[in-house]
Amino acid sequence: MLELKNVSKAFGDNQVLQDASLTVRDGETTVILGPSGSGKSTLLRFMNLLEFPETGSLSINDDAVTFGGRLTDAQIRSVRKHSAMVFQGYNLFPNQTVVDNVSLPPVLNGKLSKAQARERAQEVLDRVGMGDRLDEYPDNLSGGQQQRVAIARALAVDPDYLLFDEPTSALDPELAADVTRVMVDLASEGRSLVVVTHNIEFARQVAKRVIFLADGSVGFDGTPEEFFASDSERIQRYLSTYG
Ligand code: ADP
Ligand code: MG
Questions:
Q1: Which residues, if any, are the signal sequence (predicted)?
Q2: What predicted TM-score, i.e. pTM, was given to this entire model?
Q3: Which of 8, 13, 16 best tests ligand 1's pocket when mutated (most atoms within 8 Å of CB)?
Q4: Pairing between strand 83-86 and 161-165?
Q5: Which whole number is the average pLDDT over 25-43?
Q6: In angstroms, what is the span from residue 104 Cα to ligand 1's centroid?
């Protein structure tokens, strides 16, 4: 289980999140929805400590940190090891081949030997349909292919939670569909996914849980059925804009 409790964050005068709390359960897909600027990325980045809240706490499985004071590197590592992030812009290393992009992280974090990592890279790249492009450089791939490599890279470290920040927003619909298919496969295998997206259909069909952010806090936390049936004015307004 992943739990953020009472997290707050301001950027200057902009109070982005105020006392937000949420729980992500294992083995299911949690989708985070909300208008642009509502703090979805910030919240997701808290889970991997790419961003630090000013207050509150984060616990993932048996590891926990409390925010507000200084965290040690060991504390940060203990929490970070549980998850891997997939970004909207793929963020592959352009000067590394596909197989290096995927196999180096588990070697660098000490999880696998070079030979094991190479084998694992082949396996996860096969899973995302990129197993025949090992020696390619990212620039020679389409956006959808790069994003599938980025998913393989996240899978290579075998994280408890896969965190996706608008993974298909930069892609043409056809290429986005390839990426979405990979995510649907992972969800159906019972992996724990946390997905920030504007893809309402994905939320409707794949999510077990929908979290809706608005005005600095969690405005809804429940099943997709409940979410789409909600008569909340804020949710209705969101759905008429993004749905
Ligand atoms: P979302 O992902 O829902 O669009 P974000 O979490 O990216 O929202 O951002 C929430 C708000 O915080 C926005 O107003 C954004 O401009 C602001 N923000 C995010 N990151 C920073 C930052 N590093 N510095 C200043 N403002 C930021
Ligand atoms: Mg965002």
A1: none
A2: 0.97
A3: 16
A4: parallel
A5: 97
A6: 30
Q: Is pLDDT at 25 greater than 90 in this prediction? A: yes
Say yes or no: CB of residue 42 within 6 Å of ligand 1. yes
Distance CA 70, CA 68 (A): 7
Q: Does any ligand 1 atom lie closer than 6 A to the CB of residue 243? A: no
Report helix, strand or coil for 120: helix
Q: DSSP character for 71? A: P
pLDDT at site 109: 86
pLDDT category, 33, cuts 50, 70, 90? very high
Overall residue count recorded for the chain in this entry: 243
The closest alpha carbon to 41, from 11, 63, 73, 71, belongs to: 11
Amino acid letter for position 3: E
Checking if the pLDDT of 198 tops 90, the result is yes
